[in-house]
Amino acid sequence: MTKTAPSDTLPPKPKPVIIELSAIPEKFLEKGVKASQGGSVGCLYPYIETKKLLDGSNVFYPRVIGERDPNNPEDWRWGFNWKEKHNGVWKGKSIGSISPGAVPMIRLMQQQGATKEDIIAFIKKAKTKKTSPKLDVCKNFDNTKLKPVLPDDAPIAVVLFAGGGGIEAGMVQAGIRPVIAVEFDPNKPDLSRAIAKTHHRNFSEYGCRVVQLTVQEVAQSRFLGFPRRPDYLHASPVCANFSQAHTAKAGKGIETADDLTAAIAIAEAIRQLQPRVFTLENVPRYQNSQSFAIILDALESLGYHVTYSVVNMADFGLPQARRRLVLIASKGFHVALSLGTAPCGWYEAIAHLIPTMPDSHLLPKQQQALEKFLAGNAPTPLLIERVGGRTQSKYKPGHLPCNTILRSHFTDHKGCNRSKFADIWLPDGTVKSLSIQGAARLQGFPDWYEFPNETATAGSIIGYSVPPSFATQLFMSAQSILKGAKV
Known about the structure:
By secondary structure, the chain is an alpha+beta fold. It has helices at 103-111, 116-128, 166-173, 189-203, 215-220, 257-273, 290-301, 346-350, 364-374, 436-442, 455-464, 468-482; strands at 20-25, 43-52, 58-61, 77-86, 89-95, 156-160, 177-182, 209-211, 232-235, 277-282, 305-312, 323-330, 382-385, 395-397, 422-425, 431-433. The chain folds into three domains: 20-128, no CATH class; 133-337 and 467-482, Vaccinia Virus protein VP39 (Rossmann fold); 346-463, no CATH class. 26% of the residues lie in helices and 19% in strands. The strands form three sheets. The chain has a seven-stranded mixed sheet with strand order 8-7-6-9-10-12-11, with helices on both faces. Strands 1, 2, 3, 4 and 5 form a five-stranded antiparallel sheet that branches. Strand 7, helix 4 and strand 8 form a beta-alpha-beta unit. It is an enzyme of class 2 (transferase).
């Protein structure tokens, strides 16, 4: 799958007027891009822009801290070229300045054998598409203070591995009624019960019943008491063994018997319930597992149309870089994730909350990160992690999405609360401690969602959850198709 993690790009510090602009393609025409009839099917290529300044120095765009990652679309400008025959002569044509967020879809279209005309049409649409106000997550955080009221005939959904209800929060924002949520982790029974209690507090008014059993246990009863043919069935199986942080000697997660039995239970749920739409979310490595293959086999054997890819949720308005595998399956009609929205920086999302956050001070390593940044950049708000930062930058400027929010940020290795997990440094020297409310906003939670007071439980809900703002976009895309489908 395409890697879509965003780079640590930064706007250049103001310098003399730019007098030259050039694009330098790294690749132009690749081998094997011509169809069997001799016509070009086109080529997607990365390039960088060089701006020459009055002092003679060159600046390269996109700006990147450290080495430019060849597998990161955000580290490059993008273009698409092809050849057309005019009066017997082949002439090259190209389109530049393609959004990095459109690159995974273009690559998928190429893999699926789409014609160059279809790809060009998609690129032109992506370049001209205007964001729907309803899906402009970053601009509409303040519109989520009131809890949605759903009609009696709202579509219904069943959720497996529900956690605290991030996916359900996104569902109700999209007009969908969650009716059953299965949530229990035998490895963390106390935490799991606390999370289930929070879930009940937030979604009981919609008639949602929390089943505090494992999905495997529910599958043994053949999902007795669950609605057949629900509009939606969602699963976010436990991802710990497939996460980047949980690796074996070869750098790969260890797939366990629990992972496999969970996948078998999900496959059984699909067979028993026959949902109109099935969705799944997990970490990117899950796509290479035997567990994922079991679920795919079940969907394909039942005649579902399946689409899946790794997406960066920052490309859908979330003020957080969060790469996840997202699968959408439907029977009798086709559902696909809509195009993303404009990126949103973390500062824009929580600026109004910062004055209410408690004062803090930087740890020595945070201070080092700050000094490193200021050595080459103008002062700007920075979100600086107190933990983590081993595999990615410890700080994020305000115009960029923040790093992926994890449960481990809020608890130590013993599961105890961390009183502080990240700090906000402002150009006037003020330092604030990121609050749970601020972290929830960065995870796309609506204001009406009620968190428990305990940091470990609230942080676990935030870290475990599918970002509700992304889930809303996912299900609004499905809703627009589902309403007109006769199944």
